[in-house]
Design goal:
Blueprint (H helix, E strand, L loop, with lengths): L1 E5 L3 H12 L3 E5 L3 H8 L10 H11 L2 E4 L2 H7 L2 E4 L15 H13 L5 E4 L7 H7 L4 E4 L9 H6 L4 E4 L3 H10 L1 H5 L4 E4 L1 H32 L3 H9 L20 H14 L6 H23 L8 E5 L14 H11 L3 E5 L4 H7 L4 E2 L3 H5 L4 E4 L4 H4 L3 H7 L4 E4 L6 H6 L3 E4 L17
Parallel strand pairs: 1-2, 1-4, 2-3, 4-5, 5-6, 7-8, 9-10, 9-12, 10-11, 12-13, 13-14
Helix pairs in contact: 1-3, 4-5, 10-12, 10-13, 13-14
């Protein structure tokens, strides 16, 4: 089939490349001429494992092209996927649908007869029906469930597909688009607009709730002397709960979960439904950052001013260069404002971090960041950081103190190498000589 993808950011570029991989002819559209040109030349302006190779292969073959023309896109495609971002509004928690509405209106004006407009963006429930009623072109909703770092896999081999449709024809067209995926046995849910929209927002709300639940348990463990790691292990053996996303840490960030749960609660309130628990989910998540800052001060005996802090991580999660609402950079900026000399290192997110936080220091490697540090904060779970030799790291720092904000480092191994080691939700170890003067 001939498909167009409107918007070639993270979601759109991934979807376009994967549709080409499934055998379709694909035209990606973006109003940013520079982005369209870069993608057309096979260059991806962000980090996502496997995506650059996919785009390079299919642009070279001619199966995937990019344009800035809505007229060209309308004439090209039979099915148009709209993948425009829906950020949080600057004046509140609601989603900003300005760009999405403009994209729908513009492609509808140029779409040929019989075309199908398919929304993939995360939107407040009721958006699809409103857009469908405002255009003469048929509309469907096909929410995305991508995890950054696994987006290609999640598109080509998804856990499930959801089609929000009003007609059998729309369902038939979408079945044609995803024929290869469906033949592989992927579960399909065909439903109406409202349910399709709610699947995505409900999934994100549930995930955020599970993460904040275990982080709330970490707070209780710290107060009671428990170990949240062992608590998570025991809970994970319960089939009703499961172990995924039950590791306590500094919390979630990125461009989806924080803004999506706020927009979901806002929209529910408009409908007369109180989802107040999501406000507490959000609050617990933000408190985790406060706790890391507090642990940093505790390890430095309150002497943050002038302390040299090595920040291992800038992206909100590994296998990504996305720094939107990054817990690591939020903590780094707060310590910097307190007078600490913060040096950041991340394998992929350095350029984005420098642009957003130019007053922080930046290292060229983990070793460079560690050299001379009075405190180390591990806040993005890159394999490179998990594999650091504690003895080697101790030889570089001025004082071996570390906060593991992701709960993945081996506490015994680090403590055995002479480190003052703290991790969220775990008992504070007793160190020999901990009442002695701290080296600076």
């Amino acid at each position: 089939m001939r498909l167009t993808v409107i918007g070639t950011g993270y979601l759109g570029a991934t979807h376009a490349a994967c549709m080409a991989e499934l055998g379709h002819e694909v035209l990606g559209l973006d109003v940013d001429a520079g982005k369209a040109a870069a993608l057309g030349a096979g260059r991806v302006p962000f980090h996502e494992p496997g995506l650059a190779a996919l785009i390079a292969r299919h642009t070279a073959s001619g199966r995937l092209r990019f344009t800035t023309s809505y007229e060209e896109a309308g004439a090209f495609g039979q099915v148009h996927f709209v993948c425009v971002g829906t950020p949080q509004r600057t004046d509140g928690d609601a989603a900003d649908l300005t760009h999405l509405e403009e994209a729908f209106a513009r492609i509808a004006r140029h779409a040929r007869k019989g075309a199908l407009l398919v929304g993939k963006s995360t939107v407040p429930v009721g958006t699809a029906a409103r857009l469908a009623d405002a255009t003469a072109v048929e509309v469907a909703w096909n929410p995305e469930f991508l995890r950054e770092g696994f987006a290609v896999e999640d598109t080509l081999r998804p856990d499930r597909l959801v089609f929000g449709v009003r007609t059998r024809r729309a369902e038939r067209l979408l079945r044609g688009v995803y024929a290869g995926v469906l033949q592989a046995g992927t579960p399909l849910v065909v439903t109406g607009f409202a349910t399709a929209e709610l699947v995505k927002t409900a999934a994100n709300a549930f995930l955020a709730t599970k993460i904040s639940f275990i982080n709330a348990m970490a707070e209780v463990c710290e107060a009671a002397g428990g170990d949240v790691g062992k608590l998570s292990e025991a809970l994970g053996h319960d089939d009703r709960i499961g172990g995924k996303h039950l590791r306590a840490g500094v919390g979630f960030g990125g461009g989806c979960l924080p803004k999506d749960i706020r927009a979901f609660a806002h929209r529910a309130a408009e409908l007369g439904v109180d989802l107040g628990f999501l406000r507490e989910v959000d609050a617990i998540n933000m408190r985790r950052r406060d706790r890391v800052v507090a642990l940093a001060r505790e390890l430095c005996r309150g002497r943050i001013l002038g302390a040299r802090v090595a920040m291992l991580g800038a992206a909100f999660k590994p296998d990504s260069d996305d720094i939107r609402d990054s817990p690591a950079l939020n903590v780094a900026a707060r310590l910097g404002l307190d007078g600490a000399d913060v040096t950041v290192y991340d394998p992929e997110a350095m350029d984005n971090a420098r642009k957003a936080f130019p007053l922080l220091g930046y290292a060229v490697s983990a070793g460079d960041a560690l050299r001379g540090a009075d405190l180390v904060l591990h806040l993005t779970e890159w394999p490179e950081f998990r594999d650091i030799d504690p003895a080697w790291a101790a030889s570089l720092v001025a004082c071996p103190r570390i906060v593991d904000g992701r709960g993945v480092l081996d506490a015994d191994r680090w403590s055995g190498a002479g480190w003052w080691f703290r991790s969220l939700g775990r008992p504070a170890p007793r160190w020999e000589g901990e009442d002695a003067e701290i080296r600076w």
